[in-house]
C-alpha cells in the first residue's frame, strides 16, 4: 500500500490549507482508493498560522484588539501552556480591512502590541509572532506604541498611525516596551527574508500589494529609514544592524520591531513543520503532495512547499506540488518537486477568488497524481 502525505499551505483567497488538503485527498482516493493518506494542514507565518497550531497541541482563544484602521477586530490566538502564538494577519492583515479598502500609509500594527499584552497578562514565557499577510508598513511602530514605547513628534505628542506617521518622528524611547518583554522568549516566525530598507526591503517589495503607489513606496521607505536614524540618535546602537538582518522586513517591518524588543527570527515554515511533527510523517511516506496559492520567486525564499521539499529530499521521498498558479520555469522547480500542476493551466476562469472552482480543480489534480504516480511501485513514487 502506498502511503501519501498531503501537506499544503493555504490557497490564498479561495481555500484554507485544510480545505485544500481535503480536496486533493478526495481526488486522489477516487483514482487510488487503496492508498493510505495522511493530511497535514500547514502554515509558514501568514494566514492560517493559528489554525495550523491548533491542529497540533494548541487551543484557540478569542481576543478583541485594534485593527489596521483603528477599529476593533476580534481574532484568535493559539495557546499551549506558557506559549502563545499570535497571527499578525488575523489582527492587522489585508483580510480584516473594512470593505477591503487598502490604506498603505496609515495602517497600524497597534493591535499586535495589544495581543502581546494579552499574552503577558496570562503569564506567557514564550510568544510566537507569526508574521505575514499584513496591511501595514509601519515598522512595527504601532505595536511599540501600544507597549508604551515613546514615539513622539517635535512637540512631544505621539506620532500618527502607519508608516506615514514615522515621517514626523523626532523622539524615541523603547525602555518601557523592552521592560515589558524582558525574560520572555519572543519568536518571530516569518515566511520571508527581506531586510527593512532598500530595493529588497519591506516597502519596495510588499507595499504595492497593500495598495501603495510608486511615490508612496518611496515615502514609506524614507519614513522607515528615518525611524532607523532616530533610533540610532536615541542610543539604540544596534538599530542599523538589525535593519539589515533577513526577516527585518517581514510583515511591514514587524520583524524589525520584534528584534528591537529582543525577539529572534526563525523560518515560519520550519517552525510549523517542527511543531506539527512533519519529519515523522515524511519518514513514513512514499509520496508527498504540497502546494500553495502561488508558486513563484518568493516561494524559493523560505515558503512552506520548498521548506517541506528540502526535508523530504533528505529522506529520499519525492514531493509533487500543486499551486493556484506557477510563475517559475521548469528548471527552477525541478530541484524541489518531482512534478508541478497549476490550476491556471486547467481553466480560463479566475479560481483565485472562487473556492468551489479551486476545490474541484484540486480534486482533479489529485486524480492526475494518482493516475500518473501511484501504483507503479516504490521506486517511481520516490523511494
Q: How would you describe the shape? A: elongated
Largest sheet: 6 strands, mixed
Q: What class would the helix/strand composition place it in? A: alpha/beta
Number of helices: 17
Termini separation (Å)?
Answer: 13 Å
CATH class of the largest domain reads Alpha Beta
Strand order of the largest sheet: 3-4-5-6-9-10
**What is the H level of CATH, i.e. the homologous superfamily of the largest domain?**
Glycerate kinase, domain 2
What oligomeric assembly is this protein in?
Answer: single chain
Any overview of this molecule?
The chain is an alpha/beta fold. It folds into two domains: 3-42 and 277-381, Glycerate kinase, domain 1 (Rossmann fold, 3-Layer(aba) Sandwich); 49-269, Glycerate kinase, domain 2 (Alpha-Beta Complex), CATH 3.90.1510. 37% of the residues lie in helices and 19% in strands. The chain has 17 helices and 13 strands. It has a six-stranded mixed beta sheet with strand order 3-4-5-6-9-10. β12, α15 (330-333) and β13 form a beta-alpha-beta unit. α1 packs across α16 and α12 (268-275) crosses α14. The radius of gyration is 21 Å and the shape is elongated. The two termini are 13 Å apart.
